[in-house]
């Protein structure tokens, strides 16, 4: 690990080096070099998001059926998310559903995505058995849909039920600016220290009084963003998974004339599973933060987001391929994000942190995470039973799910937070489905990065270490893109 730490201190392991592993070229990623001085995602439009009933007044940027308008409250009552049957898709579809022919043959999906055939004859032969389960199905591409999920993660951080970071109520007293070396703390662990103190602040805000010695507004606002995006990934992602199950995988169609059911897919393959991964984010001391409250007696020391307890989403297609969505790396200064304006209007933030990576690139390029455990939400029998019961989903369902993911006990507050966020997120997913906004979202996701100032000054110089590394990586991985074609 020490050797890795030294390697990542080199210029080639800056954000530019990280982008090289995504096969991105100059121009593919917009760079934010300015953040408004009054930018405060904790207070969208001047008010926090309130509970499961009233939320902020954002509106979807594109709505085919604009049934939800800006300023209209979104409600998610218990009665709208229970008493529904979860329709779990087949775990794998690698053989013909009729004759059992293997995947070496050309297999075709039935339009419903629940079965797969090697020929028209097999499809006709199987129709008497499959007819009752078949129906119109609308499929949402996960590689086009994931920015919406990242948006919900970001807005969940602004929910009134979300605990606020203690460092936002104090004043930053030192200079934890870009380039500050990590400090060895009494525990022996190294991190960049943020020293806080002074009189407690009534309202958390990244104004100049929060960090008076900041080099400029941009540096101050970026540190603020890293801090407020620390922690609470487990309840946020658990709520998001439960919302996808309750709002998408309970939809069904009644024959050919019924309302199409909704399902997610990756490329041409329906998703067979999704859930949460737990593991380690491969970061180094200069990527992590620790805090010292010098105004307390004795001085209080605590660490920021723990890279050894990191969480992200996985999505498994029916052919076995997997993609991953990580919305928690910004706290470690890995700032690849999605541009917000393409997906919603009236938001206080101009980007949503999101690392969306396909399994192939995890194998062929530098991996940012090491998975330890995963837990399925789509195939969770406890969640399915709770949604079908006709009663409120007990907070214990969330507690058991999160405990299985985390491998530790989950407290009552954390479980109740997950349930509160689920009720709110379920309303957002329902509104998105109702408005058909996703149909007009960009096919090519607009990526941005919130770079440290000066980090990209030599972006167009072909002789920099990172540019050389990018060319070497491309030469070593020619042809990889051919394996990503739709099948």
Cα-atom radius of gyration: 23 Å
The average pLDDT score comes to 79
- Principal-axis shape: globular
Q: Indicate the percent of residues in helices.
A: 25-40%
The helix/strand class is: alpha+beta
The span between the termini is 40 Å
Main sheet summary:
7 strands, mixed
Strand segment count? 20
Number of domains: 1
Query: Which regions contain 5 or more consecutive residues with pLDDT less than 50?
Result: 1-29, 36-57, 67-75, 480-487
Could you tell me the strand content as a percent range? 15-25%
By DSSP (H or I, 4+ residues per run), the number of helices equals 11
Structure description:
- A hairpin with a 2-residue loop joins strand 9 and strand 10 (269-281).
- The protein is of the alpha+beta class and 487 residues long.
- The chain contains 11 helices and 20 strands.
- The protein has helices at 2-8, 15-20, 120-130, 142-156, 217-228, 233-247, 359-364, 381-388, 395-406, 412-435, 465-476; strands at 29-32, 59-60, 108-109, 116-117, 137-141, 171-172, 183-184, 190-197, 261-266, 269-281, 289-293, 300-303, 310-317, 322-326, 336-339, 344-345, 351-353, 355-358, 369-376, 447-450.
- Strands 5, 9, 10, 13, 14, 18 and 19 form a 7-stranded mixed beta sheet that branches. Strands 6, 7, 8, 11 and 12 form a 5-stranded mixed beta sheet that branches.
Provide the descriptors you would attach to this structure in a database record.
11 helices, alpha+beta, 7-stranded mixed beta sheet, single chain, 487 residues, 5-stranded mixed beta sheet, disordered N terminus
